[in-house]
Specification:
428 residues; alpha/beta; Urease, subunit C, domain 1; TIM Barrel; 2 domains; 9-stranded mixed sheet; 19 strands; 29% helix
Length: 428
Amino acid sequence: MKLLLSAGRVIDPVNKINEVLDVLIEDGKISKVAKNIKDKAAMLVDLKSKIIVPGLIDMHVHLREPGFEYKETISTGVRAAVLGGFASVACMPNTDPVMDNTAVVEYVISKGKKENLANVYPIASVSKNAKGEEISDIGMLLKSGVVALSDDAAPLMNAEIMRRAFEYTKQFNVSIITHCEDKNMTVDGVMNESFNSTVLGLRGMAPVAESIMVYRNISIANYMKALVHIAHVSCKESVEIIRWAKKQGMRVTCETAPHYFTLNDEAVKSYDTNTKMNPPLRSAEDVKAIIAGLKDGTIDCIASDHAPHGRIDKEVEYNYAAFGIVGLETMLPLTLTELVDKKILTLEQAVEKLSVMPAKILGLKKGSLSAGAAADITVLDLEKKYVIDVNKFASKSKNSPFNGRPVKGAAFMTIVGGEIKMQEGKLL
């Protein structure tokens, strides 16, 4: 089937396009981007007043399957993805069993293809069983379809094993995605170490526990001439270290998540366990630093760190609640509302952080509307105003601190492989 997307404002940073154009899709690929395309055989979709961008990519999600299907499944996760405007997601390996072998990787890829909604790209664990003791068979994992390596929330504390992992991955020019946390410094911590943690009587997690590992991992990667990607940057010092490293020409990229540029640790005063995540919500000064890092390009991309949890994980005392929040269905509106609408980022810069850079970091042939590219497209409605309602989420879990928050801007349509998967909030 042919699709003709008509009269939308096309924003494609890779090809430096920002104007009202038509987009012709044929056989699942971009056929042409031009003015006044005529094709009687194509299904016409009028997108006047809408924005057409390369399909958005969330490079940090937890789909929980296999092993934790009561929190999320691949089926519910990809539904949440396309409803949130994401054509592709990369999923973390903290499943059960851990995604450290080709059998689990192939299972995830197969389930993703069966759902036929968002593209699913697995991220395998760097070490076997994510225990940080023995490196996984990285070569075999990459052959089976893995796009990056990460032990996710179980950081490699042993610097020598981290070094050997970088030595291995540099042969394949693939990134290790590092959760930067010195676990020795955060034992029993549940929120940012600050005046607020003292007042609330909650054990803190110092920002230095993050920044010291950011520096360590960048240093080791640079020594080995390997690629390193810093996950969910949350504090001022981390931004400063990454900015410095980039100026030195080091091969480092990084991401942050919407909760780190929209919330600070004042939110924890409610004792709402949906304000508990790792890294934790930091200070107002840290939020300013994150926003500055996004604005000046230090922070390459925005990822949701979509971490669904069931009621039994969250509806408990703060100390015992699980870390993490859902984000696939809130990331785009929060980015448009808090960054684009407030003129911190241009729309082109937001598209770079939500599509172009994730594709580049993961080595995916996506992130542009070039002729011949896969027709993964997100259509934006910048004028839509609504209030976030967790009860309308497709995600199996509803653990979001943004319930009831007014936003402006949303995904109007998600196209994957030339097929419309979502339109106006409805799966097709």
